Amino acid sequence: MNQFITIVSGLPRSGTSLMMKMLEASGMDILTDNIRKADVDNPKGYYELEKVKKLKDDSSWLKDAQGKVFKMISMLLYELPPDNAYKIIFMQRDMAEMLASQNKMLKRRNQKPGAKNDREMTEMFEKHLGKIYEWIESQKEIDVLYVNYNNIINDPLKESKRVIRFLDSGLAIDGMVSAVDPSLYRNRCVENSD
What we know:
By secondary structure, this protein is of the alpha/beta class. It has a single domain, classed as P-loop containing nucleotide triphosphate hydrolases (Rossmann fold, 3-Layer(aba) Sandwich), CATH 3.40.50. Helix content is 36%, strand content 14%. The protein has a five-stranded parallel sheet with strand order 2-3-1-4-5. The longest helix is centred in the middle third of the chain and has 21 residues, at 118-138.
């Protein structure tokens, strides 16, 4: 069994659920509680684990997470206790696409975004990303692979190979590739749509 804990992370709507679906389809053990059900915004499911949000108060469950994967929003990564080895697959996506996806989801739920406009959100997210990237690089117990959502959609085989190499595992690449459903790529940036 792998002696490290795998985490899929990134900003909201960056493709973390897609990566979890890929890892599940490849045969990896995933940690999820399915409390948040699939819906129109994430038809294949959210793959969330509620206790991740309370990691600061209770990290005892991490001892059973070695060789498994769970999803964790990037803002919570700071709460990882340093006494474990982690491999983080950090999802990245075009900021305009992420915000479009987030705005549509919030609108459907009759919720308002935390910032007044997309420019403010972009500035807030970019500032956070700069800090979290720097923090990750300074953590000796963390190994990270940055994976771009758009690259997965365009070449799932190439990106799946990168993930499998990073995890140094015998995961099933066919399952990983087949989990990518391009029809769910619904919030394209104008420059990315042909």
